[in-house]
Amino acid sequence: MRFKTTLQKLPKHSELVSCVGWTSPDELYSGADDHLIIRWNMTTNEQSTVMTLPNDCFPTDMHWFPKSASGMGGKKGASEIFVLTSTDGKIHIINRSGRVEKSTEAHKGAVLSGRWSYDGTALVTAGEDGQVKVWSRSGMLRSTLTQNSIPVYGVCWGPDCDQVLFTNGKQLVIKPLQANAKPSMWKAHDGIILTIDWNPVNNLIISGAEDCKYKVWDTFGRPMYSSTAHEYPITSVAWTPDGELFAVGSFNTLRLCDRCGWSYALEKPNTGSVFNLAWSGDGTQVAGACGNSHVIFANIIEKRLEWKNFEATVTSAKQIQVRNVMNDVVEKLDFRDRIIKVALGFNNLVVATSSQCYVYSIKNWNTPVIFELKEGGVTLIKQAEKHFLMVDGSGVYVFSYDGRLVCSPKHQGMKADMLNAQTLTLNNDTVAIRDKTDEKVVYLFDAQTGKAMGDGKPLMHKVEVLEMALDQCGPATERKLAIIDKNHDLFLTSVRIFGTERKSTKLASMIHMMTWNDETNMLAAMTDGKIFVWYYPNAVYVDAELLPKTVAEKVTSDFGKSPQLLGFIGSHLILRRLEGSLVSTTIAPYPAVLHTFVAASRWEDAVRLCRFVKDDGLWACLAAMATYAKDLNTAEIAYAAIKEVEKVQFINNIKDIPVKEARNAEMALLCGNYTDSESILIQAGLTFRAIMLNVQLYNWDRALELAVKHKTHVDTVLGFRQKYLKRFERKETNKRFLQYSEGIEIDWEKIESKIQMEYQKERERPSGNVGATSGGAGDATKPRSGGRKERA
């Protein structure tokens, strides 16, 4: 990826250009020290003078009213105005035809920066007098946020418009708008900070200073990236609207950088210092205000996408080249309009231009599916096997690959323009969207209907969610969502629940990024110096003791400091080094093969594979998979291979149970799901087994409650309770047990005969398709193995 820069042969301004701003992707305004405001039409390549400023007014900054807030502020066409700050201490609100709607005395000395809030309700300005002020939409002073002794060179709004970031010499300050709120401040550079920007989508801050460095920060003031020193001070920085890239300007220097800080491209145009940078609304081009009277335009080209044996490259603003690396066949795809977003995956190439969407199949590049877009500004494309998702300023849309709109999921207060790849995830049956106003909330939608899942309640995490991803394989009922929260803990959560509580389990701590495998439900995650690969994350719900055995670790020291985890394709992990180069590393191919065998219920082949590989991790995966699928024979073999003797014995006991529902309940017990086990038994009418389950677990109150409720085996519960107390030489203190023991006589002969009758009834049930052995696992008096509590 790089910039294709354009400069006019002769500059249209005669003095230093100080500010630029886009009204649309095809129209730019620029202001300079020659007192002219010039309009640039990118379609016709024409320029025209909009207005001439007074002789004592030299512009310093320009910012257009946000289009997303154009319905606010009471005026129709409110997005047609911009604020211009100047050296005479005034802020000027000007419409696009050049008429000054209002001029206000704002600061003593020059006003150095001015920014509209994202919702359009307020304006913040920073001045040479060291003050930061907040103004209403109409230009009335609301408050003075701070008064410093040194000039404030840059100011910008936080994502929620409730706090402001500004410079204070070598320090950065985040000041909430609340009167009593304490500001956060940190030393950011060794020289005066000249320029800053804060992106609302990724919530990251960039700063540039006289120490010739640019740096990336999070909102806690933690450094995410620091560049090496340039030859000259950094005079301008600007995020793309979607927060994936940013541009850096310096003397005769224009740099394109990834959100993590490393540089894609470096251009050395003859511009003098680039004092101001502005991205177009679609994020495809950037304009720079240059010290030598020029305005520089730079388009992003040569963006590369790879999927299996295909490579797609955006060669120009309206052309994509696709190459099949297997046979070196090259296809050139031309488009009518400017390309905005491209996605390649799952046998399809999706291209969004400023007015249309093209869907190409890798089998046929000649006849794409084409449909019109309501809004041109597509900010995100996410793909799944059956459909893809597009985000623009107005909403989220799921389309099939034949161009049909499947659904448009929405939740209350959704801000579509704030969504990114970390806060929105998609697979064949589910769409998950993190709420922007409350980052602990994740909304789950059915991808076919767009309706909220289950009872309509969202997933509530305990801490703010940073990143999330849905698994891509397996049946919809077993769908899992992986979450990284603000504490950098990795959680696995079940998506589709049926009348039960949603299970969320912590897998690991200090995780920075994660990704699911594209072919199987393996999960890879990056921590400091290591990559963890969970071969079967679902093991945490089957037998949590097996989970550590199913995790593989890889040390990342070979890939330099702080590499990024980008993808997990087949048995390859795709990493990006700190300087931006791509590398890959591999894991063993056997877990993927095992997943394939289990998905096809080829249990004998799965056992044969594990015997061939002779790896405990693989056996542990098979044990968990077989237990989940209730394949007892395979589970027994796998548990035996990893020397889990108690569980082998427990599975043998389960095999002897005559009733299918009772076997399922015992399997749920093996997985640690005590409540599920009890509910299975009660629904099947096996009340006695449900009572004895609670007796085994010493859950005496629940056992008595069931016995009383169903009017059966109250004496059995009281008898086992007496044996339990006698064994530990204790007296009864439970009031309920004392109450019922007064009127009931404990006769062990009667109890034994009742128990035998219950087992006889089970043997005679029509569902008893496994032969029962007398005194087997169904015998309540026989001790239970498998690591569970010993029967009373």
How many helices? The count is 13
Oligomeric state of shown chains:
single chain
Q: Beta-strand level of the residues, as a percent range?
A: 35-45%
Quote the average pLDDT.
89
Let me know the largest β-sheet. 4 strands, antiparallel
Low-confidence stretches: 71-78, 768-792
Termini Cα gap: 70 Å
What is the helix fraction of residues, given as a range? 10-25%
Summing up helix and strand content along with how strands pair, one would put the structural category as: alpha+beta
- Using only C-alpha atoms, the radius of gyration works out to 33 Å
Described by the principal axes of the CA atoms, the overall outline is: elongated
Major beta sheet, strand line-up: 1-28-27-26
Number of strands: 55
Describe the structure.
This is Intraflagellar transport protein 80. Keywords: Cell projection, Cilium, WD repeat. It comes from Littorina saxatilis. It is found in: Cell projection, Cilium. With 792 residues, the chain is α+β, with helices and mostly antiparallel strands. It contains 13 helices and 55 strands. The strands form 14 sheets. Strands 1-28-27-26 form a four-stranded antiparallel β-sheet, with no helix packed on it. Strands 2-3-4-5 form a four-stranded antiparallel β-sheet, with no helix packed on it. A hairpin with a 3-residue loop joins strand 41 and strand 42. Helix 2 packs antiparallel against helix 3, helix 2 packs parallel to helix 4 and helix 6 runs antiparallel to helix 7. It is elongated and about 110 Å long.
